[in-house]
Amino acid sequence: MNEKILLVDDEVAILEGYQRLLRREFRIDVAVGGKSALVAIETNGPYAVVVSDMRMPEMDGTQLLARIKVLSPDTVRVILTGNADIQSAVGAVNEGSIFRFLTKPCTKETLAKALTASLMQARLLTAEKELLEKTLKGSIQVLAEVLSLVNPAAFSRGMRLRRYIQHIAESLSLSNPWRFEIAAMMSQLGCVIIAPETIDAVYRGQKLAPEEQERYDFHPQVARDLLSTIPRMEPIAWMIAHQNQIPALEGDLADREMADMRLGAEILHVAMQYDELLRRLGSKTEALHRLAFHHKDLDPRILQALLDFEPKPEDEETQSCMIHELSAGMLLADDIRTSTGALVAEKGHEVTVPLILKLKNLERAGGIGSKTTVSLPKQAAAAAGV
Predict the structure, then answer these.
(1) Domain annotation covers residue 137
(2) What's the total number of domains in the chain?
């Protein structure tokens, strides 16, 4: 973890004094005033801890730490002031989520203890974040693997949506793009309750019986319920639940978090329609024309991003491969179907260990043939002897 500390004050002499007293024990940077602090965070950050004076011209400590909370939410924030006004303290704590509130004059020992406690808090936050991220990544991987085995067509659609949305997020320079990508990956998770034949019929554009259509229409809510139990997945679950019905941006949706969630649902909705039109019409231009006609208020940058999207060309070699010779990381060059025509894995599906086990079991039972076709980068194919 980066354990740098930023001290902010409008008096240079005070900053120099603290720097001399603390530099042997801590990694200290200083900034004169709030604006200089924001520049320092942008150029030298992130900082583990920021200590700011309360009374500064142009931007006081409360305003600065509130800005830092948005720019660097994991930074531990400490306020230092000679003003003992309780109202100022309350405002600072409420607006900037302050970890410590210190009053001047502040001795070296008091400040050093506060900095040590702040660094310990920063370490705890970092450890918690890493644990949550690993838990989140592992949970998503497991869910994706289960979906790929239970309903390969739904899984493949999610992977296509992820590629579209990843490109859109890059083109629009969206913050937290991982949220939108995971929403795409998991958008079809609720299809685990639906028969694969029904999913195949939907993707082929066939009309479903009313009861089947009702079950299919409910799959976003199923995904929401499954994902909402995972830490930090609530906004993503909301996007997925609203992939077909996007609420207007008004009332309680006007804050930034909800605006981002609504944007994610809108992008997911558009990407799904584009994928459906592209598969049905076979023409990117025609699919985009239809989208533009039905979404006249859509941000034109989203349409442009889809127009510019091209799968990355790979220097690949396609060869026949026995089922027992498959290894993780290979890509299927053709669909694998059972003897009755049921889809097992779609073209482009990355081979994983669970998929290999499933294919071997099906082969032993006579459900599929003993060979398939895979694609690998030429160097990897040569090394594998495929």
Answers:
(1) no
(2) 3
66 lies in which domain range?
4-126
The sign of the torsion formed by the CA atoms of 208, 211, 214, 219 equals negative
How far, CA to CA in Å, does 125 sit from each of 41, 43, 68?
19, 22, 16
Residue ranges in the chain whose pLDDT is less than 70: 1, 83-96, 247-255, 311-316, 377-386
Structure tokens at 30: 């200083």
| Whether 230 contacts 224, CB under 8 Å | no
Contact status, residue 124 vs residue 99, Cβ threshold 8 Å: no
Return phi, psi of residue 286, to 5°. -65, -40
Residue 94 lies in a domain: yes
| Distance in angstroms (rounded) separating the CA atoms of residues 27 and 290 | 57
Does 168 share its domain with 250? yes
Neighbours of 112 (CB within 10 A): 15
State pLDDT tens for residues 345-386.
988 888 889 999 999 999 999 999 999 999 875 544 444 454
134 within domain boundaries: no
Round to whole Å and give the CA distance between 64 and 256: 19
Rg (CA), the chain: 27
Structure-block tokens of residue 301: 């940058």
Question: Dihedral, CA atoms, 21, 26, 32, 38, nearest 10 degrees?
Answer: -170
